[in-house]
């Protein structure tokens, strides 16, 4: 397994995305995260175009539906040759196993399948009052991670600060994909707890997801290289 820096391409048009990518010289092909905003703006054509340019893609669409629907949707996404996709672990283990089946291509290869446990926007109050889940939040997160692992998934999205605990519960090889990253001195924005790429490396993250510290930098290419240097050494 190769650790890497994934750039969160939170743009709302194809033009903005390609203006950004054109700043990199042809030899550098960062791993890119395409989320709902860009996917709904640019459609599958954007995914195909990014692949054609030689980038790896984490398609962050967080699927959550009945098992049969998720399985069939995953088969479609897998055919686009993306490298990583995700779903909500709260859809349950039958849904997660269906997703894995759908993702697996005829030749046995498949994109990595990652679970979202509880969103970082969910707090204890929301969980207890609205979702009627009365267990402590961190217990719920670790339990969902274990369900994902037992369903055959490859890892979870979590904070670098949780990476060690996830690995102690689910095993060293279970991947941790970690947003909430800032280069030292950058604005935190709406993130609550942030770590630098260097600290994420120390804490054992496998992939860091970095958005605004790169996309909002005066020199995005230099910021990307700094993240890579700190995280991969
Ligand atoms: O700009 P910033 O580095 O904060 O972007 C982080 C990216 O990771 C965004 O695309 C955000 O939606 C995503 N993300 C997150 N926290 C999660 C899951 C996803 O920040 N728990």
Radius of gyration: 17 Å
Which architecture does the CATH hierarchy give at level 2? Answer: Alpha-Beta Barrel
Strand content: 15-25%
Assembly form of the protein: single chain
Q: Name the ligand types.
A: cytidine-5'-monophosphate
Order of helices and strands: EHEHEHEHEHHEHEHEHH
Distance between the termini: 16 Å
CATH class: Alpha Beta
- The whole-number mean of residue pLDDT values reads 96
Contiguous helical run count? 10
Count of extended strands = 8
Going by CATH, the homologous superfamily would be Aldolase class I
As for the CATH topology, it is TIM Barrel
What is the helical fraction, as a range of percent?
A: 40-55%
Backbone structural class: alpha/beta
Low-confidence stretches: none
Given the C-alpha coordinates, what overall shape results? globular
What's the arrangement of strands in the largest beta sheet? 1-2-3-4-5-6-7-8
Domains (count): 1
Task: Write a concise synopsis of the structure shown.
The chain is an alpha/beta fold.
How does this model look, in words?
The protein is α/β, with parallel strands linked by helices. The protein has a single domain, classed as Alpha-Beta Barrel (TIM Barrel). The chain has ten helices and eight strands. Strand 1 (4-8), helix 1 (14-21) and strand 2 (31-35) form a beta-alpha-beta unit. It is globular and about 45 Å long. Bound molecules: cytidine-5'-monophosphate. Residues 8, 10, 35, 119-120, 157, 179-181, 189, 191, 209-213 line the site of cytidine-5'-monophosphate (C5P).
């Amino acid at each position: 397994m190769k650790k890497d820096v994934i750039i969160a391409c939170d743009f709302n048009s194809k033009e903005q995305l390609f203006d950004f990518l054109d700043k990199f010289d042809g030899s550098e092909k960062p791993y890119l995260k395409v989320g709902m905003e860009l996917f709904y703006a640019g459609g599958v054509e954007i995914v195909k175009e990014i692949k054609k340019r030689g980038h790896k893609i984490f398609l962050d669409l967080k699927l959550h539906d009945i098992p049969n629907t998720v399985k069939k949707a995953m088969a479609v996404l897998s055919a686009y040759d993306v490298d990583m996709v995700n779903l909500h672990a709260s859809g349950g283990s039958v849904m997660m196993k269906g997703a894995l089946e759908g993702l697996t291509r005829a030749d046995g290869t498949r994109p990595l399948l990652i679970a979202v446990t509880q969103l970082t926007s969910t707090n204890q109050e929301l969980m207890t009052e609205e979702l009627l889940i009365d267990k402590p939040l961190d217990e719920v997160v670790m339990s969902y991670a274990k369900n994902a692992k037992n369903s055959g998934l490859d890892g979870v999205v979590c904070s670098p600060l949780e990476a060690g605990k996830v690995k102690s519960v689910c095993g060293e090889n279970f991947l941790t994909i970690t947003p909430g990253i800032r280069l030292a001195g950058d604005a935190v924005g709406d993130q609550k707890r942030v770590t630098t790429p260097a600290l994420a490396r120390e804490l054992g993250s496998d992939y860091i997801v970095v958005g605004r510290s790169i996309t909002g930098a005066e020199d995005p290419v230099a910021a990307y290289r700094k993240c890579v240097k700190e995280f991969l050494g």
